[in-house]
Design goal:
Belongs to the ABC transporter superfamily. Ycf16 family. This is Fe-S cluster assembly ATPase SufC. Keywords: ATP-binding, Nucleotide-binding. Residues 4-249 form the ABC transporter domain. This protein is an alpha/beta fold. The chain has a single domain (3-254), classed as Rossmann fold (3-Layer(aba) Sandwich). The protein has eight helices and twelve strands. The protein has helices spanning 46-54, 78-84, 101-113, 119-132, 150-164, 180-197, 233-242, 245-254, and strands at residues 3-15, 18-31, 35-39, 60-68, 71-72, 86-89, 96-100, 143-144, 168-172, 200-204, 218-223, 226-231. Helix 3 runs parallel beside helix 5 and helix 5 runs parallel beside helix 6 (180-197). The structure holds adenosine-5'-diphosphate and magnesium ion (MG) (2 copies). One magnesium ion binds next to helix 1.
């Protein structure tokens, strides 16, 4: 079992108006095999947490720690984080012109494992995963994210998840912009990855919709850069009915 541990994390960004504190003391422990839903209103800092775990240079960690099995993740380069077993699906995936999906996946797999995947099994694995995700085989020859529809981008993320086999994955609004069929296919892929590799998952979502297909073990509600409430899957049901108003009122009263 592996553990990803976030302790009293404070993160800020430089804006034109000065330094803006976004995360104000986040604590979170995720073990392999667990699914944690990170929910919360827009602007509460969910994506900032994802970017900080991934090592995005724009986000400054002012204090606190992130460790993976006791190793300091914040001291690692972005590449080292991937090799250590962290996977981040960006809310807005970048285009990589001139690089075909098949080459991208193979290069990423080689970089993460430290050796090229076996030619014999790799091709089969890619085909099988693509088939599972109902992706046409021609997709493998397209350039990464170039002209991908929203649904294609999400499937490509899950394809990476299945093939790269990380210990921990952070999926940021993987459900946004998906129709019900695509949502089901993507959710099945996540559940398969969890079943096959004992994946630990941080599932960031504004809406409870995806949680009908991926059952979280824990739900954490972000408000104003902190975890305001935690619970089991029943908390997601409550949010579905009540929304985030209750939390937002609390914040307003504090100020
Ligand atoms: P969420 O994902 O929960 O919607 P974000 O982490 O994207 O929240 O944003 C949290 C807050 O920090 C918002 O007020 C947002 O405008 C601000 N913020 C995030 N990233 C940046 C940035 N790069 N520059 C300036 N402000 C940012
Ligand atoms: Mg947002
Ligand atoms: Mg976000």
């Amino acid at each position: 079992m592996s553990v990803l541990e976030i302790k009293d994390l404070h993160v800020s960004v430089e804006t034109e108006q000065g330094t803006k504190q976004i995360l104000k003391g986040v604590d979170l422990v995720v073990k392999t095999g667990e699914i944690h839903a990170i929910m919360g209103p827009n602007g509460s800092g969910k994506s900032t947490l994802a970017y900080t775990i991934a090592g995005h240079p724009k986000y400054t960690v002012d204090s606190g720690s992130i460790t993976l099995d006791g190793e300091d993740v914040l001291a690692m380069t972005v590449d080292a984080r991937a090799r250590a077993g962290l996977f981040l699906a960006m809310q807005y995936p970048v285009e990589i012109p001139g690089v075909a999906v098949t080459n991208f996946l193979r290069t990423a797999k080689t970089a993460i494992d430290g050796e090229a995947p076996s030619i014999r099994t790799w091709g089969k694995d890619v085909k099988a995963s693509m088939k599972n995700l109902r992706m046409d085989s021609s997709f493998a020859e397209r350039n990464v994210n170039e002209g991908f529809s929203g649904g294609e981008k999400k499937r490509h993320e899950i394809l990476q998840l299945e093939l790269l086999k990380p210990k921990f994955a952070v999926l940021d609004e993987t459900d946004s912009g998906l129709d019900v069929d695509a949502l089901k296919i993507v959710s099945e892929g996540v559940n398969r990855a969890k079943a096959n590799t004992d994946l630990g998952l941080l599932l960031i979502t504004h809406y409870t919709r995806i949680l009908r297909y991926i059952t979280p073990d824990f739900v954490h509600v972000f408000v104003d850069g902190r975890v305001a409430e935690e619970g089991g899957p029943e908390l997601a049901d409550r949010l579905e009915n009540e929304g985030y108003d209750r939390f937002l009122t609390d914040v307003a009263e504090e100020e």
